[in-house]
Design brief:
Layout (H helix, E strand, L loop, with lengths): L1 H31 L17 H12 L9 H19 L3 H17 L5 E4 L2 E3 L7 H16 L6 H5 L1 H13 L3 H21 L8 H19 L1 E2 L5 E3 H7 L1 H16 L12 H9 L1 H26 L1
Parallel strand pairs: 1-4
Antiparallel strand pairs: 1-2, 3-4
Length: 306
Amino acid sequence: MYLHFETMSHTLFMSAVFSFSVTLVSGFLICYAKRYWALRDREDGRPIGGPAVLLGILAGGVFMSPGPNYFFLLGAGVVFLVGLVDDLIDLSPWQKLLGQGVAAILALVGLPLAHLSLFGSSINLGMAWYIIPLFYILGLTNAVNLIDGLDGLVTSILLPPLVVMFVLSCQMTNYVGIGLSLTVLCSLIGFYPLNRYPARLLLGDTGAELLGYLFAVGSLLVLRKSTQGIGWAIVPALFLACVPLSDILFAIVRRLSCGRSIFAGDKQHIHHRLAARLGTRKTVCVLTVVSLLSSLVGFLLWHIKY
């Protein structure tokens, strides 16, 4: 037992170090060679460092086994390619949704989920069950992308829920959850110095959509109960993703109430409104605190009600 713990600790340490260092080094290389870097934001011209995040996650993932759920890795590749093409040539919303839908379906292939777990009660939805996690993955993938409107915002608000997911995975000895949450977490920590205000590197659609997808799939992998089949604890998941999901929900309601398309871009997101009053730094701090508090609520709900 001691030998197993020692081996696992060494594996986690190596995974964390490689995720952090590869992301940081890759990011610095992009900054250094930015004049030759074709992947740039179309509005302000700053280089996009999403590929550095991917490299860090892959580097740390070398030490981890995806187990039988490797289909979500294929989906992650699809999402990354969709984001990359979108950063280069600007895809239409429906083209992006098509690619993200393929990725979400791939993720669900490897997830043996049978019902929703709602405050300790099991709700069996039959074949319609897959619709909810499908929309959850699509919604969170785009929500994280939409809230990526301020320097350092996404990297900051995702840290608390990722820490919670890592702790829960360790408590349940969920090796896939441990590997996914740890590599994404350490990759974000490595990217943060280059992404904080004023950012030298942006996530772009390439990085933001990938993070949203992995965050969504990670919460599906981690927040599972196997008391009556295998169910997904949806309420703790919603609290973990409170900030980005609230933003996209308000955006949809706001645009529909004005008779506009839900895909129409604007500068009326939560972070835009706060930044107009508080500035970028304070807005990022405020939303990070909200993410921290909502993640703690999700953590407590998991232990109290699930």
